[in-house]
Amino acid sequence: MNSPKFWFSILAAVLFLGCCFTARAQSTFGSISGTVKDASGAAIAGAQVTLTSTATGAVETFSTDQNGSYSFVNVNPGEYTVDVDRTGFKRFKRASIDVQVQQSARIDAVLEVGAETQTVEVTAETPLIQTDNASLGQVVDERKTNETPLNGRNVFNLITLSPAAIAQGGSGGSQVGQNPFSWGNYQVGGSFGNESAEYVDGQPVNIGYINLPILIPDQDAISEFKVQYNNLGPEWGRFAGGVVNLSTKGGSNAFHGVAYEYLRNKVLNSRPYFSAINPPYVQNQFGGTFGGPVIKNKTFFFFAYDGYRQRASAVVTTTVPTVGERSGSFPADVPIYDPLSISAACVGNSTAANCGRTQFANNTIPTGSINPAALIELKFLPPPTNSAETNNFSSAAPSGGNTNQYVARVDQNLTSTQHIFTRYNFFNLLDLPTDPFGTGLCADRCAETYQTNAAVIGYSNSLRPNLLLSINLSGSRFHYLRSPKNSSFDLTQYGWPASYNAAIPSAGRSPFTPCFTPQDQTVTCSQGQSFITDHDTQWALSPNLTWIKGRHTM
Q1: pTM for the full model?
Q2: Can you state the percent helix, strand and coil of the chain, rounding each to 5?
Q3: Alpha helix locations (H) across 359-424?
Q4: Which class for 318: exposed (0-12), middle (13-18), buried (19 or more C-beta within 10 A)?
């Protein structure tokens, strides 16, 4: 197994996979490296360095080389202890080492001459400084991630804790009712909005559909994340601004769980200053997490659920045809002319006064001159709620939506050198339509549904103390549907041939909407009848082979 042909085969396989797939070595791993010396500053070769995970008890070992150097790569974010042993020296121990996402921490040890049964324990030291690369970024740790108050618990809002990130329109608060392109609408590292890349456990979550992220992770399922915005390594791509690298929680040797319920409603909310009433509003967000061991020091699980329900109502005031206009009778200050009465003087001369047209008697369009298609359109426009000519319709239009998200993760320590984990996310979002007319002509857009299935498997193996292999395989499926309430409309009602129905998919076949400008920009002149459907399937494979040779890590 240790023959040169074996190692050549491993390297060839990794290079082949990297060429044949979308291969990128992105991950949430950190690393710990350093040197071991005696009190005189001489390097100590052959010292046994042990790295132990506080949460799972997983252990890795490394023997220092002739330069006294050691290095642990592919280290999952979390708390660790480093122990150093060498015959003739006191044991060195440093506990509570917090390894963060994409952090290269350095822990140097100085051994004192003495018995091995004696231990020098470092309990306070200067903060860890990353000296192995020049990348710039901001880590948002678990406490900030889980305890920072967020309206709607949108964890992406914490991106702005980085000094290099600025939120753009629609990115704040809950994703319910927002345009999906706003989910990742942040300027990072001086880029334009929505030009960064988001990764969860090394899985890319941006898709080709305007670079939108296909899910917003559950706040309580994220252990920490890092916003990287400058001098990123060559393994990163597909972004113009920065990278947001999130790591989900895993189980540990102790059982942990939380449950929560957040409630907002109009009873608890103050009345808006310029409003005579307190508009209806109800918002519930609830869920919980639970994780722990299946087999101590070996198998661990973690599960999280988050649900969100929002119901609101707002008064919509707009303009619709008056009772007289619906029957063809218009007010005197709006003269209505017979379009068939144009004179020859107007041909090529549109500046002629009224073009010799004849005004309808009593400013009323005869019933026989009204197009039957226009009468079909009037079915979707309600009668006015007052006698005014403009702003003559008001109604309380309900809105809101639901989200559900499930996260499941399993970690397995196969051996002392092999670790594997798998994580699955299910995310769905329903935006309810705002239909102030009650006829299916929605304000802006009708119902929208989003659904995401995302899974990742990560495997790491210390083939030798100085040769490490990691493979990250992920896949996701995203579906987006915007559909009008008046879909499957029968176009023959306009007098068109039945063949037109077959030419347009039923989900996108809806009545036309007349646009009354500038009287009504809220409903009829919006995209309320628009139809969009999108399916995105994405696979990513990231193999990574790390070779440590002396002071060099390749």
Answers
A1: 0.80
A2: 15, 40, 45
A3: 372-378
A4: buried
